Amino acid sequence: MNALFTPFKVGLLMIAASSSLVWMSTQVREGISEREDLTSAFALFNDVGGLAVRSKVVIAGITVGQIDRIELAGDQAKVWLTLTLPLRADARIAKRQASLLGESFLQLTPGYQGPPIPQGGEIKRVDYDASPSDLMEEVRGIMVNVNEITLSLKNVLAGENGEQRLVGILENINRVVEQMSQALSGNSPKLDRVVDNVIAVTDEARRFTVDFRRKADLILADAQRVSENARLISADVRAIVSQDGAGGGASVQGAMARLQDSMRRLDDTLEHTRSIAQKVDEGQGSLGQLVNNDRLARSVGNFVDESSRFISRLTRLQFQVGMSSEYYMSQAVAKSYFELRMMPKPDKYYVLQLVDSPSRKTSVVERLTTTTRGGVSSAVREQVQTTEDSFLVSLQFAKRFHFLTGRVGLLENSGALGLDVTALGDRLQVVTDLFEFEADRNPRLRARATYAFFAHLYVAAGIDDVLNRSSMDYFVGGGLRFNDDDLQAILATAPIPSF
To answer: What is the pTM of this model?
Structure first.
């Protein structure tokens, strides 16, 4: 007993340590985190020099995505992006230079107008920074111009008469400056008067334009009111004249009678409106309660919010149905499973499993039979052994961390722990279960490997009760698993039972 239990402790410690190491290694990764609300889009570039897979996409210096992959599309490069925010039709992406070494990144403007860009849509507006080769080409052109200018200066100034020409130019400049100084000093009082007159004229013009604008606005407003009144009067006269003849007294009287009737109806309507408003203000009726009772309004708002959240969770809930069977080699019996998974999120699910177990429950009952013959009683004791099939239930909660899935709950009527490892796009799965923790034997350890060779069909093989040599057994089997959207509709429309 102790010889088997000591390796089991060591094995458990190794499994726990390995699982912790694998989980911590998955937490250290490059790029953006895996989330449900990531957006995928692409853009076409004429040149992707300096860009690479996982190059960052930024807004105002903050990383909001990365390059997923780069493909060749004709004579352009098709760059696929993974982003953490949605895009609109006027979104813009620009290739920017990160350093003089040629490294680049993408600067994103998500857009503010137009319809949203769907998943996998195209960002049509693409900008480019000048590349280092373009900058060097511009610098080379500037240097050519500088060389030509310096060569021209050399030809002008480096000759025998170059210095004399330069001296003559400076002397001419000095004479012009002296003449301008003399002219300004002699006419300074006249220039001052001219400037004062210009300032006075501009002030008068400004005051005149301000007064004219104000009066023009008043005149236009009066004219607009007069024309509006004239239009209303002409419309009223036209309506009166057109009734019941060519403007006779009868038509005017009919119009006045209709006007009085309309005024009476308007008074009745205003009275009813005032009565309704008074009842609402006093809190009478359902509308009054809703308007004046803040508690009732908050309750209605909370009910609407809770209903919206419940419907949102219900529409995201997915159901997966599985049926499988396994054949145990040593016992030569088959074990059948029916499984229902409820998945509110891709990384979390609840599983309900019904198991038709090959293990038979055997019980021994002692039966006492008393018989009487000839006044003499005799008792016969006998033991009756009965064997019946066992029907088991499993109910577990599972949480997924990348390629590892942990489970806890009830497995085949016993408390259990489980760890699943997936690979090859979830086609290959290794399932380990530890359950039936009893005092007189080692816990039951079961390992199963499944491989899905079609969309819904898979094969399985494994070993059961590894830690107990006397009951260890190998098994093979297969099954099918599929999503059932009808269960979601049935759950949404099923009536709530009353007790």
So the answer is: 0.37
